[in-house]
Design a protein that fits this description.
By secondary structure, this protein is an alpha/beta fold. Helix content is 45%, strand content 12%. The chain is globular and about 70 Å long.
Length: 423
């Protein structure tokens, strides 16, 4: 590991309680990745309030290519008012700035819907590298073309924002900070009372010193990726692309409006490849290996809805042909049955899981009082793809039984937990 990187980590640990060194390496690597001007890297750092998002992002604010953005409106990025250089994107381009920092993206999520839609449409264009603002007046159109990365802090509320998924879903990666030791975090915070300027200044200085001594490789390709690591990166891209694909539903009746077509893996493969190489560079390496792949793994699973990951994990833990009912899965992942049912339907439409229907007649064998049970298992082909990722242990023959204590709470026997849907 680079001695300069170890210094940055040490300064962070001096002032704040942080038990995830990977997030430090990732944000530094994101700056490096955007210096290559290859694939724009946009990352949400997802964590509850007061969980270090702000401090991590503020430590980057003193770098020459970053711009800290506290507020964003539909007129911020490009505007037809005044001269073109009054538009933020054009001004930042002239100043050589290529990474936007947003401490709290949640404030945008709380804006009224029309403004949010307009901002998200603009951000989508920025991520794609070109944007045009049509004024309709004598001044003509305002154009921007370039490269802009983005790092933003956000809370778990992002998982409930359908508009973000539909508008920006394929542009952002999500890195989820784990739950920290609350007592240790509080002790560290109390020790810093009266020292805010000192510790924020020291964090910023450590990051600036790191980059002042960092030598950027002449090409992203100067950092190699062994074939076996590249194969895993591609597998993670394919897995994430399919699992994060949104299923469009009516906002009131929750009816599926459009059959989903899974997202392609190309953008994710490029992002993961650039980041793996950039993380290696930050760590003083010239080859990305298993350690760098560990952060890619966190990004891959963090970018997928936590609820979906819970379902996939629960079904992967069973033998390949073993099925679970909707209610059994709901108990195991600790979610309401109706919520679980929608999750399962979505994953079935994406061909991630397979639905099996079993009908049970009434006591006299007639249709009266008959019930229908929906039983679920992982799709066989998808299970093989998950197995390649090597993130969960293979279930033992006959079933892993990881959640048997939860299933027992749902009732004795499969028929006791069936969904009662009359014919």
């Amino acid at each position: 590991m680079s001695a300069h990187l170890e210094t940055v980590r040490s300064v962070f640990k001096k002032w704040v309680f942080i038990d995830d060194d990977d997030v430090i390496d990732l944000v530094l690597a994101s700056v490096v990745a955007n210096r290559f001007k290859d694939e724009p890297i946009w990352i949400f750092i997802v964590a509850p309030p007061a969980n270090l998002k702000t401090e991590i992002l503020l430590s980057l604010a003193g770098l020459p290519e970053t711009h800290l953005l506290s507020k964003l409106t539909p007129k911020t990025l490009l505007s037809g008012f005044g001269k073109p250089e009054h538009s933020l994107l054009i001004r930042l381009q002239k100043e050589g700035k290529s990474v936007l920092l947003m401490k709290d993206f949640t404030t945008i999520l709380e804006m009224e819907e029309s403004s949010r839609k307009e901002i998200f449409a603009q951000l989508r264009e920025v991520a794609d590298g070109h944007m045009t603002y049509s004024t309709g007046g004598a001044a003509g159109d305002v154009h921007w073309k370039g490269h802009m990365g983005l790092l933003a802090g956000v809370t778990d509320v992002i998982d409930h924002q359908r508009l973000v998924k539909n508008s920006l879903g394929s542009r952002f990666l999500y890195y989820r900070l784990g739950i920290i030791d609350q007592k240790q975090a509080a002790i560290a915070a109390e020790n810093n009372v009266g020292k805010r300027e000192a510790w924020r200044g020291e964090l910023s200085a450590a990051v600036k010193k790191f980059f002042s001594e960092f030598v950027l490789p002449s090409s992203i390709r100067d950092i190699s990726v062994p074939p076996e690591i590249l194969e895993k990166i591609i597998s993670f891209a394919m897995f994430t692309a399919r699992c994060r694909t949104d299923v469009d539903r009516d906002g009131y009746q929750r009816i599926v409006e459009i059959l989903p077509t899974p997202e392609g893996p190309s953008r994710l493969a490029r992002q993961f490849s650039v980041l793996a190489r950039s993380i290696a560079a930050v760590r003083g390496k010239r080859e990305a290996g298993e350690e760098e792949l560990g952060i890619i793994r966190k990004l891959a699973f963090g970018t997928i809805s936590k609820k979906r990951v819970s379902v996939i994990s629960a079904l992967y833990a069973r033998a390949s042909e073993e099925t679970l009912s909707t209610r059994e899965i709901a108990v195991e992942i600790n979610l309401p049955v109706n919520t679980t049912k929608e999750l399962l339907e979505d994953l079935s439409l994406l061909e991630i899981i397979h639905r099996q229907i079993e009908d049970y007649g009434g006591e006299d064998g007639s249709a009266k009082d008959a019930t229908r049970a929906y039983l679920w298992r992982l799709d066989f082909k998808f299970r093989e793809e998950v197995k390649k990722l090597n993130v969960w242990p293979d279930p033992v023959a006959g079933g892993n039984h990881r959640g048997d204590h939860a299933l027992a709470a749902a009732g004795e026997g499969r028929q006791a937990v069936q969904e009662e849907i009359p014919f």
